[in-house]
Write a structure and sequence with these properties.
- This protein is mainly α.
- The protein folds into two domains: 55 residues, no CATH class; 241 residues, MetI-like fold (Orthogonal Bundle), CATH 1.10.3720.10.
- Helix content is 71%, strand content 0%.
- Helix 6 packs antiparallel against helix 12, helix 10 packs antiparallel against helix 13 and helix 14 runs antiparallel to helix 15.
- The radius of gyration is 25 Å and the shape is globular.
- It starts with a helix and ends in a 9-residue tail after the last helix.
- It holds the Pfam family BPD_transp_1.
- Keywords: Cell membrane, Membrane, Sugar transport, Transmembrane, Transmembrane helix, Transport.
- It is found in: Cell membrane.
- It is a multi-pass membrane protein.
Length: 320
């Protein structure tokens, strides 16, 4: 008999507890931890978003209780939300964030699918070594990887990309000084960070594709492209869609790449939504406004994931 079963049996012997109450009692520690580290910060963030909180009034009182009750900050209702929704910089950040999500996801899917097809091909030897090598970037700290890529896209002549260009007779490019060249650098770095996870999911899906379907397609005279479009893709669609939704959410919340590269520049042109919220809260010290931006971002990413799970029918077979 397991420990959990013994505990449940002992709890059921308590006169005032039913079996359902006993089950609830067993999950209380987990609920407490979830509330302390997940639910409470979100609730506190919502509360701050309805105030004019800033360092001068939020930390005006003494003790933790004063901070938890928002110090001397005053309730301003929906003012912060109205301010950000009428701020042109918010809509610029909002638009460039969704554009970044769309372009980076396409690049990640194409890259990971191409690599997965190579490492699962019967024509390739050393597949285990290749797979180990492919997921190696997952073991590196993101800040380290992003810093390396910033050096690769350095505007100086010694930058790796500029050395590559000058080697073919082209002029050096100020990668991080132009809006769209910097945006392209964001996408390439984001694809590098995400492709190991995407490849793992895609390779697992490809290995589950029935060989009988491919053999039947070959008998019918289907070529590689036809088999890929009509056999492989339909078979791996749902796992790849699941990975795409997760990496899309990660792209929407991307902070380190734009901030480390050029702080969302030039001139805040590539300032993603999370960087925008960070700047408003910590650089301009408007905590209420920054909290409102975070809540708006949370609502949009939640709606995006829910809609994709619903439309992609990824929850089919799961009880309501």
């Amino acid at each position: 008999m397991s420990t959990a079963t013994r505990v449940a049996n002992r709890v059921e012997k308590v006169p005032f507890l039913s079996r359902g109450d006993a089950s609830l009692l067993l999950v209380l520690p987990g609920l407490f931890i979830f509330s302390a580290f997940m639910l409470f910060p979100v609730v506190y963030l919502v509360g701050i978003s309805f105030t004019n909180a800033e360092p001068a009034n939020l930390f005006a009182g003494e003790g933790v209780v004063s901070i938890l009750t928002f110090g001397d900050a005053t309730f301003v209702g929906l003012k912060n939300y109205a301010n950000i929704l009428t701020d042109p910089q918010f809509w610029n950040s909002f638009g460039i964030t969704w554009l970044f999500v769309a372009t980076s996801v396409v690049l990640k899917i194409l890259t990971s699918l191409s690599i997965a097809l190579v490492v699962t091909s019967d024509l390739v030897r050393g597949k285990r070594f290749l797979r180990s090598f492919i997921i190696f970037p997952m073991g590196l700290p993101p800040i380290f990887t992003i810093t390396v890529w910033r050096g690769i896209f350095s505007s100086a002549e010694f930058g790796l990309m500029n050395q590559f260009l000058t080697g073919f007779g082209f002029e050096p490019v100020a990668w991080l000084s132009g809006r769209w060249t910097a945006f392209m650098a964001y996408n390439i770095t984001e694809a590098w960070l995400a492709y190991p996870f995407m490849v793992i999911i895609t390779v697992s899906a490809l290995q589950d594709v029935s060989e009988e379907l491919h053999e039947a397609a070959v008998v019918d005279g289907a070529g590689f492209v036809s088999r890929f479009l009509h056999v492989t893709l339909p078979s791996i669609k749902r796992p790849v869609l699941f990975a795409t939704i997760l990496t899309s959410a990660a792209s929407f919340q991307q902070f380190l790449i734009p901030f480390v590269f050029n702080e969302g520049g030039p001139a805040r042109a590539n300032e993603l939504l999370i960087v925008y919220g960070y700047r408003e809260a910590l650089q301009f010290q408007e905590y209420g406004r920054g909290a409102a931006i975070s809540i708006v971002a949370l609502v949009f990413i939640g709606a995006f994931m829910w809609l994709n799970v619903k439309k992609g029918r990824l929850a089919d077979g799961v009880n309501d």
